[in-house]
């Protein structure tokens, strides 16, 4: 399987991050959770998760890994819906908290370095189950 890689830290010559390894382990753990929580009578059609920006997941890589992990299992063909959550930023100077698509932004009060304060969630939100009556 060809998996995209990207440089760490954005510098050429730096260590490389294999974009599929992290996502593959997440997909394996998620499939285990889904199998534990799915009812025995019914077929899982859709799995919905929420992922915080701090997790650093690549949605396309996670979907590809999900397909690989669920191949030839009862979860094969299940659609993985990923709700990417934005960064949550908090300013120590004024106490303001807001969401942002990027982690490092100046605060409206002038503080140049507020800190990311949330965004590490990875939650299994919902399973859509098809039963025989459907």
Write the layout of secondary structure elements.
Elements: E1 5-7, E2 16-18, H1 19-37, E3 43-52, H2 59-70, E4 79-85, E5 87-90, E6 97-100, E7 115-118, E8 122-130
Parallel strand pairs: 3-4
Antiparallel strand pairs: 1-2, 3-8, 5-6, 5-7
Helix pairs in contact: 1-2
Tell me what you see in this structure.
With 134 residues, this protein is of the alpha+beta class. The chain has a single domain, classed as hypothetical protein PF0899 fold, CATH 3.30.2320.80. The protein has 2 helices and 8 strands, in the order ββαβαβββββ. It has helices at residues 19-37, 59-70, and strands at 5-7, 16-18, 43-52, 79-85, 87-90, 97-100, 115-118, 122-130. The protein has a 3-stranded mixed sheet, with helices on one face. Strands 6-5-7 form a 3-stranded antiparallel sheet, with no helix packed on it. Strands 1-2 form a two-stranded antiparallel sheet. The model is unreliable at 1-17 (pLDDT under 50).
Look at the structure and give the CATH class. Answer: Alpha Beta
Distance between the termini: 36 Å
Instruction: Give the tally of β-strands.
Output: 8
Percent of residues in beta strands: 25-35%
Uncertain residue ranges = 1-17
Mean pLDDT: 85
**Strand order in space, largest sheet:** 4-3-8
Strand-pairing-aware structural class: alpha+beta
Report the radius of gyration as a whole number of Å. 18 Å
Kindly identify the CATH topology. hypothetical protein PF0899 fold
Order of helices and strands: EEHEHEEEEE
Query: How would you describe the shape?
Result: elongated
Q: Please count the helical segments.
A: 2
Residues in helices, as a percent range: 10-25%
For the record, the CATH architecture stands as 2-Layer Sandwich
């Amino acid at each position: 399987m060809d998996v995209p890689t990207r440089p760490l830290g954005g510098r050429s010559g730096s260590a490389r991050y294999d974009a599929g390894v992290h996502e593959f382990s997440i997909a394996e753990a998620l499939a285990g959770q889904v199998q534990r929580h799915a009812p025995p009578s019914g077929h899982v059609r859709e799995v919905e998760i929420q992922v915080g920006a701090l997790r650093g997941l690549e949605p396309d890589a996670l979907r590809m890994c999900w397909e690989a992990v669920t191949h030839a299992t009862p979860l094969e063909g299940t659609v993985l819906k990923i709700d990417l959550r934005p960064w949550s930023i908090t300013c120590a100077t004024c106490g303001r908290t807001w969401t942002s698509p990027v982690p490092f932004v100046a605060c409206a009060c002038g503080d140049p370095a507020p800190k990311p304060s949330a965004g590490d969630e990875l939650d299994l939100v919902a399973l859509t189950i098809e039963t025989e009556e459907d």
